[in-house]
Specification:
Keywords: Membrane, Repeat, Transmembrane, Transmembrane helix, Transport. Its main location: membrane. Belongs to the MPDU1 (TC 2.A.43.3) family. With 212 residues, the protein is mainly α. The protein folds into two domains: 115 residues, Monooxygenase; 90 residues, Monooxygenase. 75% of the residues lie in helices and 0% in strands. It is built from eight helices and no strands. Helix 3 packs antiparallel against helix 6. It is globular and about 50 Å long. The chain starts with a helix and ends in an 11-residue tail after the last helix.
């Protein structure tokens, strides 16, 4: 019996279980503050599309549930975060509803296998640079404002730890899928950067802008 495989399975299901509440601290932070200040709506929106691609990539390839079902819960919580940010910013515009319809259609097309698998694999590969692009606005905003606002340290640590564990489970249960290994490695790095920013800047008010 391969003990390392059993450990991988166990860790995989641990991640899936904790993913159910992974972003709850972030959700509560926004809810309690009654503002999404410090949380980049652009970053969360892009991340939501990327989670949809990754979930369906694993699903269509019949990978074990322990290797990917956390994407479903993270995706659901991201949608809640987006709704809270938009609600408190009073931005339920036609653009919001258009993007919502596009996302639902996009997810259903992927889920029901209407995309050729080769195209889905290409989309999964593209999630790597887009994941970095999704985090850049958040990291840049933190740096410029010298504040991380409503960002949750607990959630970010959980995401970074999850990425590290996923590197191990990918090696053991997905034959070291190169695309996913790169994705999880970069995911861990960018989340560690955000953790450092939270520790340095905290949730202080943004730095005052200097007059010209």
């Amino acid at each position: 019996m391969d003990v390392s495989l059993l450990v991988s399975k166990f860790l995989g299901y641990v991640i899936v279980t904790f993913s159910m509440i992974m972003k709850v601290p972030q959700i509560l932070s926004i809810y309690n503050a009654k503002t999404g200040y410090g949380v980049s709506l652009q970053s969360v929106t892009i991340e939501t599309f990327l989670y949809a691609i990754s979930f369906n990539y694993h699903y269509q390839n019949n990978f074990p549930l322990s290797t990917y079902f956390d994407y479903f819960f993270l995706l659901t919580q991201d949608i809640i975060i987006i709704l809270l940010i938009v609600y408190y910013a009073n931005k339920f515009t036609s653009m919001f509803y258009t993007l919502a319809c596009i996302f639902v259609s996009f997810f259903l097309v992927l889920f029901f296998g209407l995309f050729p698998l080769s195209l889905l694999e290409l989309l999964q590969a593209l999630t790597i640079p887009f994941f970095i692009l999704a985090k850049v606005p958040q990291i840049y905003s933190n740096f410029v404002e010298k504040s991380t606002g409503s960002l949750s340290l607990i959630t970010t640590i959980g995401l970074a730890a999850g990425n590290v564990i996923r590197i191990f489970t990918t090696l053991k249960e997905m034959d070291g899928d190169f695309t996913m290994l790169i994705s999880y490695t970069l995911g861990a790095l960018v989340n560690i950067i955000i953790i450092i920013q939270i520790l340095i800047y905290g949730n202080k008010s943004p730095a005052p802008k200097k007059d010209n």
